[in-house]
Write a structure and sequence with these properties.
Blueprint: E1 10-15, H1 23-36, E2 40-46, H2 48-61, E3 66-70, H3 81-87, H4 92-102, E4 107-110, H5 114-125, E5 135-142, E6 145-150, H6 160-178, E7 184-188, H7 199-209, E8 214-219, H8 223-226, E9 231-233, H9 236-261, H10 265-273, H11 275-284, E10 293-296, E11 301-304, H12 311-326, H13 329-344
Parallel strand pairs: 1-2, 1-4, 2-3, 4-11, 6-9, 7-8, 7-9
Antiparallel strand pairs: 5-6, 5-10, 10-11
Helix pairs in contact: 1-2, 1-12, 3-5, 4-5, 6-7, 6-13
């Protein structure tokens, strides 16, 4: 079975009104994704006076694989999620997610207001049976490739049981997206020793230790980038701080390198000589390679692109949505949760 609806193709509802770079970036991302994936069908969602002209060339170039869906409203990046949910029922975010609910799309992708996308997705799609709260998951570059980290901001406070559920969801995504048969799982903590951390983290450790999951213990912040762990679990407050700190550190490194390589004539010559190495380094840590945060735990597939993502990065979010839809990640989460609970019983 290739997709939830047993078809060989994957249809994505793409919110083109979202993101800091405007509809142009979303439409170009659609072009890149369609060119790269022959089995991809896209529904571009937005205000008709914007979407129809922007998509005219796409519809001609990829005949039969692109259509549009009208949405009369747009959620701004600084709008309160509650206001967007109650007051903009015909927003591009809502229309895209509604298509997943109705079965007209296998997944939705948006670069819009994270809180509004999550609130709308949770309201429309609901959470899976046995899942208390959805979580935000993304990949981080690491010394061994990448690490899946969740939650990245959806739930500032979590119970031990919810952290356990996050571990199940992270294991499914790592297996489905990256083919890791038995992903290693750790809890983010202030130390690796058993007595470290607060009561909730220690209780979650006991739940995971007693489960059938491949739980390997606590992980510290540096393990996100330097360890050999496949999935690292945290509450949304801790996970979001870790994510924003890593983004800031990456920008700092880039800025300092630019300053040093332009400080003098000799430094500029060194920069020219090191250009191939610097380009290779930039490719390895390019945020676009990891763009696309999964909203896991929902009864449907929703992927959030970074608001400032350019077209290639946005296209990567579409690629992730395709994989998760084809692998039917929501069903797999339900199955693994039932399996782990049964093994404990």
């Amino acid at each position: 079975m290739d997709t939830p609806n047993s078809q060989s193709t994957v249809r994505i509802a793409l919110d083109v009104m979202s993101g800091d770079l405007g509809p142009e970036a979303a439409v170009e991302a659609a072009r890149l994704a369609l060119a790269a994936h022959d089995d991809l069908y896209l529904t571009l969602v937005g205000q008709p006076h914007v979407v129809d002209p922007a998509c005219a060339d796409l519809i001609k170039s990829f005949a039969g694989r692109v259509d549009t869906a009208a949405a009369s409203e747009v959620v701004t990046m600084d709008e309160l999620p509650s206001k967007a949910l109650r007051g903009k029922k015909d927003s591009s975010i809502r229309v895209a997610i509604n298509r997943v609910k109705s079965g007209d799309a296998d997944a939705a992708v948006s670069a819009g207001n994270t809180g509004a996308v999550m609130a709308t997705a949770r309201f429309v799609l609901k959470t899976l049976p046995g899942i208390d709260r959805p979580a935000i998951l993304s990949e981080f570059p690491s010394i061994r490739g990448h690490t899946h980290v969740l939650d990245l901001g959806a739930n500032a406070e979590c119970s031990a049981q919810q952290l356990y559920q996050f571990a199940v969801m992270g294991a499914v995504v790592a297996r489905a997206v990256n083919g890791i048969e038995r992903p290693s799982i750790a809890l983010l903590n202030i130390g690796e020793e058993e007595m470290k951390g607060n009561e909730i983290v220690r209780e979650a450790a006991q739940l995971l230790s007693a489960s059938a999951l491949n739980y390997v213990g606590f992980a510290e912040g540096n393990d996100v980038f330097m360890g050999d762990i496949d999935v690292i679990v945290a509450d949304g407050f801790t996970g979001n701080v870790a994510m924003k700190s890593s983004e800031g550190a990456a920008k700092l490194i880039g800025q300092l390198m630019r300053e040093e390589f332009t400080r003098s004539w000799f430094a500029k010559c060194c920069a020219a000589a090191a250009a191939p190495v610097l380009k290779a380094f930039a490719r390895r840590i390019d945020p676009g390679l990891y763009n696309g945060a999964s909203f896991v735990g929902l009864n449907g597939t929703v992927v959030k692109s970074h608001g400032s993502a350019d077209a290639p990065a946005f296209a990567n979010a579409i690629r992730i949505a395709m994989i998760e839809a084809r692998k039917d990640v929501p069903r797999r989460i339900s199955d693994l949760l039932a399996e782990t609970l049964a093994s404990e019983g």
